[in-house]
Amino acid sequence: MLSKLGSGRADTIKQKLDSYGITGNGKVELFADRQVGAFRTSNYYTVAIVGNYTIKEEILNGTVMPDFDKYVDLCFLWSKNLLLKGDIQGAINYFNKGMSYWSGTGFLDKPFNDTGKKEFETYKVGLALWMALQLNQTTNGQLHISDFSKMKNIIWSMQDSTNGGIHTGYTSNLGTADSDTNVETTAICLLYTPPETGAGGPPDYMIYIIVGMVGLATVVVFLVLKKTRRHSPRRVAPIERSFLSSQRKRSQSLKS
Length: 256
Hints:
Helices cover 42% and strands 10% of the residues.
C-alpha cells in the first residue's frame, strides 16, 4: 500500500521484511501482482524477538481449503489470482461468487454466520471494490456493482476521527460496535482508490493521515505482533486478533 501511494517508507519496510527471510505467505503476494497456489490453512512461525515483542510470520502451508469459496475475502483474492493467470471469465465468476454474499449492508459469508456477534468485516468491502475496479479495467467497464457508492460510504463512515484508521467491523446500522482500527483493514480499504487514478476516493488529507499511520507500523499485513510478558496474561494486538480470529474459524470449519 505504501508503495502504491509513493511513500519512501515502502523500501525501508521491504528491506526489513527481507532481512527476516519473508517473501510472501501464500496469499498476500496477490496484492503485489504475484500468483499463488491453492489456499491452505495458516501456521505461525516466530522469526524474531525484538525487546518485548515477538514477530511472527503467517504462512498458508497447512491443509488445502476445499471450501474456500465460502469465505468472501478468499473469493475476491482467488479472483485476483485467476486474473493474473489470464483467466478473465474465471476471475469474474469468483468475483460474482463473493458478491453473492452481499446483503446490501455487509457480507453474509461463513465467518459472519458462524459468529454470534453479527458484525460485518470492513476489509471485505474494500476487497470487493478493489477487485471490481481491476475487473472493470480488464473488461472495459462491463462489470458493475449496483451498491458501489454505498460500499464506499460504508468504508469512510468507519474512519476513526482520532487516528484516521478504518474500523475493522461494523453493525447493520453502521455502528462500529467494539471494533478497533488497524493497519491491515485500513490499507486494504485504500487499495480501491490509488491516487494516480484520480477517480473518487478519499481526499488528499485523509491519504496523508493514513500514510503516516501505516508508515509508523513495523509490520505489513502478514506480520503478527504480540506483547510477551513473563508471568502475565497474553495480550493480543489488534492486527493479530484480526488474523487469528479469521484463521481460527477456518481451521475449526475444516475439523468439523
